[in-house]
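# step 3/5: fold
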Amino acid sequence: MKRSSKLAGAICAVLLLWLNQPALAADQADQAYALPETSVSANRWEQELDKLPRNVTIITRQQIEEQNPMSVVELLKGVPGLYVMQSDTYGTYAEISMRGMGYPASAKTLVTVDGRRQNLIDGNGVDFSTIPVDNIERIEVLHGPAGVLYGDSAVGGVINIITRKGSGPAGGTVSAQYGSYDMYGFKGNFKGATEYMDWFVAARYDDADGYRDENHTRIKGANFKTDFYPNQTWSFLVDGVINQANFGVPGSLTKAQMDRDRRMASYAGAYYENKNQAIRGQVKGDFQRCGLVTMDLAFRKWQSEAEVWSHGDNDSKIYDIQPKYVLDSTVGGFANRLTAGVDYSHWDVDYDSFDLTSKAWQYSHEFKMDSLAGYALNEFSLTKDLVLNVGARYQDQKYDLASRLVGGAGPTDTPGDEQWAWTAGMVYNFAPGSKVFGRVARAFRFPRVDEYTSYYSGAHWDLKPETAMNYELGAEWQFMPGARLSLTGYIINMNDEIVWNDVTYRNENLDETKHQGVEAAVHVPVCKWAYVFGNLTYQDATMANGPYDGNKIPLAPEWMAAAGVGLEPLSGLNVLLRWNYYGQRYLGNDYANAFDKMDAYNTIDAAVSYRWQRYKVFVNATNIFGEDYSTLGYCNAWSGESTYYPMPEAQVWGGVSIDF
C-alpha cells in the first residue's frame, strides 16, 4: 500500500505540472512541427519519433557542442531516468542503470555504437574510453526493454551512440583542453565529402591524475569512417577504431577512511590497462520499391590486463554478421514498414589469473559463445494518425566454458538457452508533434561468463536467463512551438534476476522482482535566447517474492530529478546551468536491506562556450559547490562494514578549438 501511494503521488505531481502548462492554438503547433524529429535506433532504421510507441531521448550534436562534456558518461548524466554509477573520476567503466535495474547495470542496459554492441560478455562492462565525445553525431536513448531488435541485455533500455560522418568541403578541427587534477588533452579530426564519398578521421590523447590517489587516466586512440556511394543503388561503408588506455585503481573506502581523507587510495600500484581494435564493413543496396538491404561484417579484438589483489589477462575476439532488410510499402492506402534481420555473433575469450601472494599462475579460463537470432518488426498505419507496432525475436545462445588450474584440470560446461522477445504497441498522434502510446513487451538477459564461472576458484554454477515483462503507457505533448512535455509510466515484472550472494560467494537467481515508475521531462523556450528544462523520475524497484519479499533492489534511488536553463544572450555565446538530484538507495549486495542507505546528493554543473568564426573557447565546471557524495558503494555481510567510491569535489576544465 505504501509503495502504491508513492507511485500515485508521483503521477499526480507530474500531471499537475502538465496541466499547468500554457496551451497554444493548433496552428502554432503545426508551424513548429514542420520537420519531425527522427530516431535511427528505435527500429534500426530511421523513423519519425511520433510514430514510435515508446519514450526516446535524443542528444544532438548541437547539445554536445553546448555542453562540452569531458566524456560520454558526463553527457549521459542529464538524461531522464538514468542513474550513473562510477568507481573512478572519469567513469571509464561506469554502470548506467535504467528503470531501477541496480547493479550490475551494464548487464541490463545495452550500449551500442552505430548499432554494434559494446557490452562485453564478462564482468568488464562497457569501456566508455573507446568512445570520444568529439566523434559523436547524436545519442539516442531508448527507455525500457528493446529485446525484439537488440536481444540480450536490452532490458532496462538501449543507449545507441551514432558517430559522425564527413560532409562539405575538406577541413577539420584541432583542440586542446586543461583542467582540475592535472587533466589535459589534445584532439583533431579531418572530414569532408565529394560526389561519391565522404570521410571522417580523428585522433586524440587524454591524460589526468584524477581526483584520488592512484587514479590516473591515460588514453590515446584514433578512428575513421568512410562511405562510398558510386551510384543511387549501392553504397559501401568501412569504419574502425583503435584505442589504448591505462587507469589507476584507487579502490573503495570505509566511512572512517573518507573522514580522514576522501582522496586516499586503498590500493597502491593497482592498475587496469586495455587495448581495443575494431573494424566494420557494410554493404547497402537501396532497391527503392523492393526494399533496402544491408549486410554488416565486424571484428573486434579487446585485450586487458589488470592488477589489484590478483593479476588477470583477458584476450577477447568478437565476430559479428548482421544482414537486415527494410521494406516500405502501402496496405490499403496506408504506410507499412517491415524490418527483418539476422544477428550472429561469435566470441572467443581467454582469461588467465595470477596470484600476487604465491607469485604463481592460478586459473586459466577459455570461454566461447555463439549467438544466433532472427527478428522481425512490422509498423502498420491503421489510419493517418494511428500506428500499430508488432514484432518478435528468437535468440539461441550457447556457451563452451572451460576452467582449469594451470598445470591441472578443472570443470568444463556447455550451458545454453533459447529465448523469445516480443512487442505489441500502438501510438496515436493527437496533434502535430504530440502522441499517446502504449505497449507490452517481453525481453531477456543471458548470464555473463563471469556469472557462470568464478575467476578465482574455477567453480561453475547453474543459472537461468533473466526474463522481463514490460507494460508501458506514455504521452508527449508539443504544447507550444519548440516546447515538449513527456510523461511515461511503466511496470516491469522480472523473473530470475542474477545477483551476487555475499554470504555464499556465488551468483544466484532471485525470485520475482518488480520495477515500476514514472518518468517525466519538459523543455520550454522562454524567448529566442533562453530555454528552461527539467525532468523527474520516480522508480520503485522491489523483490516481489522469496526470502527478500518486499525489500528494495540495491543501488536504485527512488527519486531522481534535474532542472536547468540554457542561454544564448549573444550570438555564439552559450551558457548552460543544471541542478541534479539523486535520492537515497541501498548499498550494493544489501538485498536484506540491513545496512544504512547511501546518502542523497545534489550537484550543480555549468558550461560556458563562445564561438567566433573558426574559433571556440569553453569553460566547464561540475559539482560547483563541492558536495561530498558517492554514486557507488557496497556492504559486506561478513564484516558488517560498508565501503564507498568517493566522487570528485568541484572540478573545472576549459579548452580552445580551431576549425580549418
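# step 4/5: annotate
The longest helix spans residues 2-19.
# step 5/5: archive (pending)
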